[in-house]
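Example 9 (inverse folding). The structure is encoded as follows.
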């Protein structure tokens, strides 16, 4: 079985970095991708799809530190759906992409300057894949 997602898109907001009660960093961000096509009537149309991305560990810290709204990003990971019961007693679901690889792209960026003066090297992002996803108690949101 395969559960693999590859996206290239632009960040819709600055990434948010949090830490689990155990001290593990986790970064969440929203990524927009666009699909364009020509309809039967010859008119161009496009649709924007929004994706929730979660990045764990050192790679999550780097993502939160160096990226900001509008920046173009390559994300590779897997789909994961989690559920919880809301305060109103209704069961809720959220499907996210748990990123295993995040690459900061230069071209197509709406926001050219990173948050810090020195961009990280490629080695900073080659964190080993997460062997297991932290339990629901470790998720800070």
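The amino acid assigned to each position is listed next.
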């Amino acid at each position: 079985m395969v559960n693999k997602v590859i996206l290239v898109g632009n960040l819709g907001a600055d990434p948010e970095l949090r830490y689990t009660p155990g001290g593990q960093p986790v970064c969440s961000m929203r990524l927009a991708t666009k699909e364009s096509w020509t309809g039967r009537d010859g008119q161009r149309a496009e649709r924007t799809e929004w994706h929730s991305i979660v990045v764990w560990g050192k790679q999550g810290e780097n993502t939160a530190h160096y990226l900001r709204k509008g920046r173009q990003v390559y994300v590779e990971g897997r789909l994961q759906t989690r559920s919880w019961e809301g305060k109103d007693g209704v069961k809720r679901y959220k499907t996210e992409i748990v990123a295993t690889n995040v690459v900061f792209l230069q071209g197509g960026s709406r926001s050219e300057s990173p948050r810090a003066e020195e961009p990280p090297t490629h080695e900073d992002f080659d964190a080993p894949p997460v062997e297991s996803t932290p339990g629901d108690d470790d998720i800070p949101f």
